[in-house]
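Reading a protein record of the kind used here takes little practice once its layout is understood. The reader may check this reading against the record printed directly beneath this paragraph.
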Amino acid sequence: MSTDDTARLIQVVADRSARLAADFARTAADRVVPTCPDWTAADLIGHLGGVQRFVTDVVTRQRRTMPDDHDLQAMFATPDRADGAALIEWFDTGTAGVTAALRGAPADLQTIVFLADPGPARHYWARRQAHEATVHGVDMLAARLGRFPTTAEAAVERDLAVDGIDEFLGSFLPRPESTLHSDRPYRVTVEATDAPSRWTVRVSAEPPEALRHAPDDDPVDLRLRGSAADLYLSLWGRGGQVRTTGPAELQAHWQAHTHV
């Protein structure tokens, strides 16, 4: 990844966070989020604002270990959740802090990370926050609409969606806590119909392995096809229209064990 890639992702953090705040301003704070039904809109903006403060702290302090419980509680402490204007101001402050921290971080930043194959820490945190803000922005839109947004309404740009699919398959699925294992090995192809992007995920008793740009003739048992945005939303459990072909039992296994 290049410096330009990282800068682009930091701008996504700013833009998607601003869009989330604008949707929250048009939503009752106690409105249930259809895509995360255990949360209200206020819970959602409080979560992301706290995560942004956590990342700001990790990046600026170049933390190699987790903050203590007291510091974590302070990061996630919000204003009165019934006060929408105060929540937005608090959230905007968090967004400004995390984008400034990422822009000012050195290229050789060293911090804790939480995903497999993370790459350089500055890029890792920019990427993670870009997709955190994008996915939760879809959640806030769902709260405003009272339903799952369509792919067009979610408006996830193709290149951002491709990057998010790559992060999901290559970094989230192989995490130690992943339950995507099978004594009967199988292969899953994830193919974007609007981009030259294709992944094959090898599922076995070992941690899953994702190979990008696998050969077209690589044998597969399960195939997921759709636009990059549809695949992105589907993998994150936020809707999306994806065509899945393959045995029903493998489809069920994949769906049950790819939720994060």
Notes: The beta strands are 32-33, 36-40, 186-192, 198-203, 209-212, 222-226, 243-245.
